[in-house]
UniProtKB/TrEMBL annotation:
It is an enzyme of class 6 (ligase). The gene is murD. Belongs to the MurCDEF family. It comes from Coprobacter secundus subsp. similis. Transmembrane segments: none annotated. It catalyses: UDP-N-acetyl-alpha-D-muramoyl-L-alanine + D-glutamate + ATP = UDP-N-acetyl-alpha-D-muramoyl-L-alanyl-D-glutamate + ADP + phosphate + H(+). This is UDP-N-acetylmuramoylalanine--D-glutamate ligase.
Length: 445
């Protein structure tokens, strides 16, 4: 009798995992508490996979040999607890997919910058002619690509939620950009639990593998002492220090590798700003490790198109610049956005608070922000922290109201910045929906 695989959640990750399980000959069942999008229903039907939506039928799930869980489902969901009680293994889609490919895995995580770094790394590898797929939090599901394609390399963006249910999977090149508080509501409001999840990207690495990380991150530095990693360590930093493989010297970015060193001026980089400097360094080191020619790396770094919803310039209207940073779903992301601003800012903040501590951006708000528009169902925490710290603080319950109020307060030469610090699920379907609505409202001014 074939092994029974149950997939919980039928989004990009779950549907892809179900297809791979079916292709490999397993008895597959898919269950989603929400309604399944038509494109995923059609995909499941195409492979004759049985599915249900809007509920979980326990007797069809608790008879599984193994369960693949979508990353959005928390560990304390009743169905997950029921599976744990019966000692039924629960894994991630990435863990499952990794069993069926010998491709080299370039895996990227961090509290901020991981999408940009993932897309930039993929851009460098693809432009250099490598047979490479893009997966994880961006691109198509890794499992679906393993089922239907034959890539030699994958560049994978990994969230802490995906890392939580990965056990035997190994990153040949692991990149850890930074660790700052995020998703603490999913980690029992315990920062160490979140740190441990991020460091899972290094698990199973051997002497043949590479770990790339930000040398100046205090959390990473402390954890490195505790982990005794076997992988080769390739840190990057703002300034040159012993052992650092990428750093800035005057206006040059220097990338060191065992056999060669090359540089690119900061003005040549397509991505500007201090945070993007680090993203470019991390991507460059990984490309160097893979022996990509320095000319190819340099060309890709200079012609890369940025990420939508991340410090995305939308329009300049009557002298006011509008920037969409909807992807800033935590305080540290907003810190990076504010740090890169060179004008006075009208800041649109708010959404579903994940246990945020706003002290991290307090001094930047003091120096650069003339007004805050609180966009959320419940703005009480924002008011409790920021009232009296900026000249103007107003509430908005829709994106149109927020944009209208921000434009009314802004003067020519100011920037209206949507950088919410929070998840979007109180008023919007996703951070993409939030950013798209912002752009629409700006264009309609």
């Amino acid at each position: 009798m074939s092994k029974r695989i149950v997939v919980l959640g039928a989004g990009e990750s779950g549907a892809g995992a179900a297809v791979l399980a079916k292709v490999k000959g397993f008895d597959v069942f898919v269950s989603d508490m929400s309604l399944i999008k038509d494109k995923y229903k059609n995909l499941l039907n195409q492979y004759n996979i049985v599915w249900e939506e809007g509920h979980h039928t326990q007797e069809l799930i608790l008879n599984a040999d193994e369960v693949i869980k979508s990353p959005g489902i928390p560990e304390n969901a009743p169905i997950i607890e029921a599976l744990r009680e019966r000692n039924i293994p629960v894994i991630s889609e990435i863990e499952f997919a990794g069993r069926y490919t010998h491709a080299k895995m370039i895996c990227i995580t961090g509290s901020n910058g991981k999408t940009t770094t993932t897309l930039l790394t993929y851009h460098i590898l693809k432009n250099a002619g490598l047979n490479v797929g893009l997966a994880g939090n961006v691109g198509q599901s890794l499992a679906y690509q393993v089922a239907t394609q034959n890539y030699d390399y994958y560049v994978i963006e990994l969230s802490s939620f995906q890392l939580d249910n990965m056990y035997n999977f190994k990153a040949n090149i692991a990149i850890l950009l930074n660790i700052t508080p995020d998703h603490l509501d999913r980690y029992g409001y315990n920062m160490q639990n979140y740190i441990d999840a991020k460091f899972r990207i290094t698990q199973n690495q051997t002497e043949d593998d590479v770990f790339i990380y930000w040398n100046d991150d205090p959390v990473i530095s402390k954890e490195l002492k505790a982990h005794h990693l076997k992988a080769k360590l390739f840190p990057f930093a703002e300034t040159h220090e012993d052992g650092v493989k990428a750093y800035k010297k005057d206006h040059d970015i220097i990338i060191e590798a065992p056999d060669t060193t090359f540089s690119i001026t900061d003005q040549e980089l397509a991505l500007q700003g201090r945070h993007n400097l680090f993203n470019s360094m991390a991507a460059s080191i990984s490309a160097n490790v893979l022996d990509i020619k320095k000319e190819d790396i340099r060309a890709a770094l200079s012609d890369f198109q940025g990420v939508e919803h991340r410090l995305e310039k939308v329009a300049r209207i009557r002298g006011v610049e509008f920037i969409n940073d909807s992807k800033a779903t935590n305080v540290n992301s907003c810190w990076y956005a504010l740090e890169s601003m060179r004008t006075k800012v009208v800041l649109i903040l708010g959404g579903k608070d994940k246990g945020n501590d706003y002290t991290e951006i307090e001094s930047l708000v003091h120096d650069k922000v003339k007004a805050i528009i609180c966009l959320g169902v419940d703005n009480s925490k924002l008011h409790a922290f920021f009232d009296g710290k900026v000249d103007t603080i107003q509430d908005a319950s829709s994106m149109k109201e927020a944009v209208d109020k921000a434009f009314a307060v802004a003067q020519p030469g100011d920037t209206v910045l949507l950088s919410p610090c929070c998840a979007s699920f109180d008023l919007f379907k996703s951070y993409e929906d939030r950013g798209t609505q912002f752009k629409e409202c700006v264009k309609n001014l």
